[in-house]
Amino acid sequence: VGGSTVRMLTYNGTVPGPTLHLHPGDRLRVHLANELDEITNLHTHGLHVSAEGNSDNPFLHIEPGQSFDYEIDIPDDHPTGINWYHPHHHGLAADQVFGGMYGAIVVDTDDWSEGGSPRVVLVSDTTFAGGGVAGITQAQRMMGRTGETLLTNGQVAPELRGPAGSTLRLLIINACASRYLNLGLTGFSAQLRGSDSMPLVEPRSVDRVLLAPGNRADLSVVMPSAATALVTASFDRGRMGMGMMGGQSTAAPDAVVLTALPDAAISAPPVPTSMTAAHPDLRTREPDGARTITMAMGGGGGMGMQFLLDGQEYSHDRVDQAVQLGTMEEWTIVNDSPMAHPFHLHIWPMQVIREGDAEVSGIDLRDVVHVPEFSAVTVRIAFGRFPGRTVYHCHILDHEDLGMMGIIEAA
């Protein structure tokens, strides 16, 4: 990595792990053999699938030396798009993702040969020390760790090649434990085709895209005529706001994601123009119910700080939200803290209705919603299928591990 040999956590010996290409209607079988010295499991982030049994179940515990067979049925009407997988054992998720355990999942209606479209751009960060992944302090954990090294497909600032003037499709995944990707796209004539796992009704031109941890973007970019860096600019996530950590910054320095180099010898397959059917606009229906979820940081935890949802830390034995299948609800996600918190709900996508007091135009469907400090975001959620229990949480993975997670049960 960047000219040095390092020891990391891996799936099948590579960082990132294998890219899984799926089609709507497929059955995904994964044999997970745990050769770590700690518990792990697997979450298929973004897939609209069951969270029960041996499917996308975040409550599974695969002990060291044990193995488990996942079997995940992809619905016939699953949207095309970019998703990813990573560990989700409570208390260890941040360490294992930061250590190198993540991979891409592409759901598409076409088969793509190597070198074809789309190009997966899986971005993560970590810090190396002594030939391996560095440990972190309790203060760094509470702030949400930011790695010193930015990795793109396991490399430092790799090259993206294609003929000048050609259009390439990039599927970008933010697999960082805490870092926001603030992508400047000036010079790429970029169009956003989809956010998270959902395609847009119509692509739209963008010169900047902000991806919170866990977010994805389906982009088409025009290859420039000269070498051009795709840079993630600094983004301030806020402050702890108390004690000796109040002045520490969460803003990561600017970093190069990749460098686009014009190369006439590299083929540029056509970017598909077809999009899957649009998600229904939930603003046209009256919600069946409304809830408020409050994200906050309070005193009393390690070093005097707790990470709370509705005033409580996560408990495996408590159902925090009970919802009825077949209903649609409006949730207001309130961030009553001096730090930004990206809110992630498993299984059911969220349509963003309002950000603060501003109405959101169009259909903006996410599974991770950025909620700025001392602000609120209102979403609507259709609980159409998949009974059982799963979770919602802050996708600053350290904050999730420290207790900012709740359980939702649908019946």
Descriptive overview:
The structure is a single chain. With 411 residues, the protein is mostly beta strands. It is built from 3 helices and 31 strands. It has helices at residues 93-99, 138-143, 397-401; strands at 20-22, 27-33, 43-45, 67-73, 81-86, 103-107, 119-126, 128-129, 132-133, 149-152, 159-162, 167-174, 181-184, 190-195, 198-206, 208-211, 216-222, 228-233, 255-262, 289-298, 306-309, 321-323, 327-335, 341-345, 350-355, 358-359, 365-366, 368-371, 375-383, 388-394, 405-410. It starts with 19 loop residues before the first strand and ends with a strand.
Brief descriptors of the model:
mainly beta, 411 residues, 3 helices
Outline the secondary-structure elements:
Blueprint: E1 20-22, E2 27-33, E3 43-45, E4 67-73, E5 81-86, H1 93-99, E6 103-107, E7 119-126, E8 128-129, E9 132-133, H2 138-143, E10 149-152, E11 159-162, E12 167-174, E13 181-184, E14 190-195, E15 198-206, E16 208-211, E17 216-222, E18 228-233, E19 255-262, E20 289-298, E21 306-309, E22 321-323, E23 327-335, E24 341-345, E25 350-355, E26 358-359, E27 365-366, E28 368-371, E29 375-383, E30 388-394, H3 397-401, E31 405-410
